[in-house]
Amino acid sequence: MPLRRTALAIVGAFAVLAGATAQAQSPRLATALERALAAPGVAASRTSALAVDLESGQVVYDVNAQRALAPASAEKLAVSFAALRVLGTGYRFRTEVAGDGELVGSVWRGDLYLVGFGDPTLAISDLEALARDVRAWGIRRVTGRIVGDETHFDAKRAAPGWKPRFLGQESAPLSALSVDEVELRGANESAAAAARVFRATLVRRGVAVRGDAVAGRQPAEVVPLAQDLSEPLAQIVRAMNRESDNFVSEMLLKELGASVARKGSTAAGAEVVLQVLAEAGVPTSGVRIVDGSGLSRLDRLTATCLVGILRAGASDPAIRDAFITSLAVAGISGTLERRLDRRPTRGRVIAKTGTTSQASALAGFVRRRYVFAILQNGSPVPYWSARAAQDRFVTLLARS
To answer: For residues 316 and 89, is the Cβ–Cβ distance under 8 A?
Structure first.
């Protein structure tokens, strides 16, 4: 497929990011980039931008590159980088079914527990697979309840700095047991709703259930009955970044907290991200990670940090392919499918976009030659004007 060939070519091109002797850059290019970035309604003092020649390491353009600004969804680059580094590209989320009781003939005497471990892609089809596995034990009747357990994560459904309307509109409630496309009756209903769907699925599969579906916590001693695994993390991150999925990025952040700090919270995950960035040599001065999606008004990143993340991700052989191919391709895929879709940018710019009422961002690579990051803030930021400036900026880089 053309997209696959494009992605592989990009990955190969970033195998070596530096090492050549620094070359002098034309001041004409810097001047042209400065003019391109000027946007009506966007103050220069609230713009942070950096472009670097990948081969030489020479800074091509720098304006307020170390100024901390709201990043919008460019925040997801930090989360995906940390998740791939810490959890690994092959990491799979799991969802389990366990029993508290005993199997007597074809009857499970006791409760069944549907236990979530933060899979952001859990779907009804996964519950159907779990129900088939339960039935494969020979179970035809359950005397107790179906209990949904979401305690792998904390009980906070949103992140600090979110507007109230974000919960439910921009992201589903953050729960370790959340099933895609299942209607909720409230923000704290994910586990009970998952249990209800699983109960109904068991019944359809020929397993009668006497008890109700509720939320709860599984006891320490249970009998494992079934397990479902997600797709590898590399695929999850690819879908997350290309489509800028807020819920997935928030779940990844909580999982980083659960896996490293043994606390499945947004705050714990944010601390892990900052630690991973620092250990990778990414500049973090002024950086503030508050959520995973960039929805929070409290998030702060710099163009210097974003360029550092991009270079670190592209230079790490363990995560390079997964990280680079998670970026949207200009004119071809994701949030750039209908943007920068003409020469010389189509297929030659790969980047992460970001848009909120106060921030517009674009960060990525141009023609295997440049790495760049642009952050623009406003109250509100003029969306079309800011995006047009970003497009002019990367188009100049593509032509140079």
So the answer is: no
Question: What whole-number percentage of the chain has pLDDT above 90?
Answer: 92
CB 393 within 8 A of CB 37: yes
- 75 and 98 both lie in a single domain: no
Mean pLDDT of the chain: 94
Residue 20 included in any domain: yes
Q: Are residues 224 and 242 in the same domain?
A: no
Q: Are residues 246 and 347 in the same domain?
A: yes
Output phi, psi for 102, to 5 deg: -155, 155
Total number of domains in the chain? 2
Average pLDDT over residues 113-119: 98
Domain coverage including residue 136: 94-229
17 — pLDDT class (breaks 50, 70, 90): very low
Do both 188 and 75 map to the same domain?
Answer: no
Q: Which of 175, 210, 229 is the last residue of a domain?
A: 229
What pLDDT, on the 0 to 100 scale, is given for residue 4? Answer: 34
- 363 forms beta bridges with 352, 373
Residue at which a domain ends, from 194, 229, 264: 229
pLDDT tier, 3 (very low <50, low <70, confident <90, very high otherwise): very low
Contact call for residues 283 and 305 (beta carbons, < 8 A): yes
Residue-by-residue DSSP string for 255-278: HHIIIIIS--SHHHHHHHHHHHHH
Which domain CATH number covers 176?
Answer: 3.50.80.20
Alpha carbons 155 and 172: distance in angstroms, whole number: 13
Note the pLDDT of residue 25: 54
Number of C-alpha atoms within 13 angstroms, CB side, residue 22?
7
Q: What share of the chain is helix, strand, coil (3-state, %, to 5)?
A: 40, 20, 40
DSSP symbol at 338 = T
Burial state string for 72-84 with b = 16 or more CB within 10 A and e = fewer than 16: bbbbbbbbbbbbb
CA nearest to 368, candidates 9, 4, 2: 9
Whether residues 265 and 317 fall in one domain: yes
Query: Quick one: DSSP state of residue 186?
Result: S
Q: Give the global pTM.
A: 0.92
Residues 273 and 224 in one domain: no
Q: Could you tell me the CATH number of the domain that includes residue 261?
A: 3.40.710.10
